[in-house]
Amino acid sequence: MLKLRVLVATAAALTAIAACTAENQPTVVNPNSDATVVAAVVSTLQAESDVESIVATAIAEGLASLPTAVPLPTAEPTATSVPPTPAPTPPPLPPPEPTPVPSPTATATATSTPEPTPTPVPTATPFSLESLVSAVGDSVVRIQTEYGSGSGVVVKTDEDGTAYVLTNSHVIDLARFVQVTVREVEEHAASVLNIDLMRDLAVVTICCDSTLAAVPIADSAGIGNSVVAMGYPLGFTSLRVSSGVISGKQVDDFRRRAEVQTDAAINPGNSGGPLVLDDGSIAGLNTFVLRGGNVEGVGFAIAAETLEEVVPGLLADRLSYVPPSLELHPILQDGIFRNDKWDYELAIPPGWRPRVVDEDFVSFAPFRNNVQVSVSTIPTTPEESLGSLFGYLQTFTLSPAPWWDDFNIFAEASIERDVDHFAGHLSSTLPGWEFRYRYETGGRAFTGITQWFLYWSLDGPAILEFSMQMPERIWLNSEYDDERYVPRDILSSLVFRVLPS
Q: Is 278 a catalytic residue?
């Protein structure tokens, strides 16, 4: 197609050239003969040199007049072929209307049951040691009886100023009068409200001091919690505190109570005082310490879990525990404790329980009165004993425990103990030596009896030591005959089954 258009343009150009030439020099041409025309043109071009420029100009104008090639249309229309129809603009949405809240009707209010408003529980903020003592110290009291002193803590108050003081039962046990000192100077006569002998808890009341605040009992306390032991130890008349942590937890199945162990220093006279967490609540009630031998002094407190269980009943003047059974302890056989290593027997009455049982040391105690009977072994050598108990006594005498004060031996005597069979020996008795002594601890006086017997075993000689201790008030008062004669009877029941040789 393009070639055809170029030929047409060329023919047109030639025609124009012919016309132009005719004006300058007329030539006779046969119109019926194209060859003649062409020949005439060629002849003219060759003859006239200026005709070349005219031809070039004509050809250029002819080529410029040709139309530009238009590409064939594709299957899809171009953007400009059909103008797009604009999408209709949506009308603006109306603003959202608030949902009406129905007002409560009078009928609904009348028939609905109002729920009690819960009491907000404040977030416990740990006290510093100084602020803890300031917050709790006034509620920790000193308890004095005619036999000694201990501690206590206020756990409830009434509007009339009556304060309820929690302490150990052994602090007030058998006392004729109880005096409570508040803030180290204010003295109040106290009345015993309730006693739980099994768990060693008691509540006394004083009247009237409306400024005292009750110290709450914690829900529980875990190992590692920081604690402070508060009280009036060692007969001091001013408040003393010692800090530490809860070192362990245990359960005394026989006394039916939970206990916590602490490394905070606890001494005689701390009994009944609180072991306080750093939020100001009671983690336990300081109760006893294990000492002697390799034990440096491990303190224990009746745990908060037991206090929460028992104290409400004590405050309500009702016992919340099962009295101790008078059945014999399972370790006893027909009421007899037998030691197979050292071949001796002791008659233990109902109601007494073993506190420590080991082949070299045992102790038994009742639920009250701080009375104890124990048997221990003291290793010795033939050189120390000089072949007999009396030779041993030439070198050694009874020494006090580390926590005994004002120790004094007021009587000594030779004794004898029966033997079941003497295995060829001429005598059926075993000689011994008895010490009677007095000492004080925690502001309370005690009296004790200790008996020594020389025992020869396959490993060599040893001293078997049989002891009993009781509060001096029981020892001296005839009205306590039941309490004071039972441990003596236990000691007197000692029988060797085989004569030591």
A: no
